[in-house]
Amino acid sequence: MTVEATAVQAKAVAGAEAKMKGAIGRPLKWYKQLLYQVLCLFVAFTVLFPIAWVVSQSISTSKRITGFLPEGAITFEAYQKVLDKPTTNPVSFLDLTFNSFKLAAGASFASVLLGVSAAYAFSRFKFPGRGFVFLAILAVLMLPSVATIAPLFAFMNRIQVGEFNLRNSLWGVGLAITSGLLPFATWNLKGFLDTIPKDLEEAGMIDGANRNQIFFQIILPLSTPALAVTALFGFIGGWTEFYFSWQFLTNPKDFTLAMALSQMSGQYARSTPWDQFCAFALLVALPVSVVYLALQRYIVSGLTAGGVKG
């Protein structure tokens, strides 16, 4: 390519970039701004109104469903009752929280550990059946987790060691949750690993590093954003999981926050203590909501970085 052609190409690229910047920075018409603002306010209202209603109900003195504003004086008695004795079962709020944390943290760690190993193999190695297995993982990812309850129940119920039954334990629920989180972890991390240049691994091999050193000292540190996002989504999935816990567990000491929240609902709407129910729901959602809002920027960047290649 000649110098003249290069100059013409550079001038064309600069002109296109300037035109794009001008289009992006161009102010909107007043009616378009008004329309967009009204649309944003409507979306914000539909999202925030249910949350505000639950907060209002939790600090109300009324046991029944009330309007948007709390009835009577504002009180935090419902929160105190939930923290003291959330359900009729002999299990405290701290025990429920610890059980949910063990499930969420364990499933998140296991799914990331196994997922990044499988994702690295799919991203870097060529082996027979690679495409078919990866499509099979995608098919499992599209399958709802509730569809796997029956086979997992039957399979884990057969594993009995003395008085220990895998199905009726937090270990069994954790394995079931991990089986649902693993396809997403593998798919998301594989897309991110594809964006890491292979030249870095080749440079490490030239310096004498073996495959394990490259994986642990080069690939994993560069994959920190995707690992954090995958771990966070796995933790949220384990923290809010209900189906496996409800079907597998029978011992109250193994119950989780989601199970206790479900037990607070009575047979009819009038028999449900709605102030305590709303207070409990807020306490369950508060930890993951705070973490999600604090890491929202990193979540978006990690997901978009993992989705540029398939």
Plain-language structure description:
By secondary structure, this protein is mainly α. It contains 14 helices and 2 strands; from the N terminus they run H-H-H-H-H-H-E-E-H-H-H-H-H-H-H-H. It has a single domain, classed as MetI-like (MetI-like fold, Orthogonal Bundle). The protein has a two-stranded antiparallel ribbon. A hairpin with a 2-residue loop joins strand 1 and strand 2. The longest helix has 32 residues. The two termini are 34 Å apart.
Which helices and strands, and how do they pair?
Layout: H1 3-25, H2 30-58, H3 77-84, H4 93-124, H5 130-142, H6 149-157, E1 160-161, E2 164-165, H7 170-193, H8 199-206, H9 211-222, H10 224-239, H11 243-248, H12 257-263, H13 274-294, H14 296-306
Q: In short, what is this structure?
A:
This protein has 310 residues and is mainly alpha-helical. It has helices spanning 3-25, 30-58, 77-84, 93-124, 130-142, 149-157, 170-193, 199-206, 211-222, 224-239, 243-248, 257-263, 274-294, 296-306, and strands at residues 160-161, 164-165.
Main features:
single chain, 310 residues, mainly alpha, MetI-like fold, two-stranded antiparallel sheet, 14 helices, 2 strands, 71% helix, globular, disordered N terminus
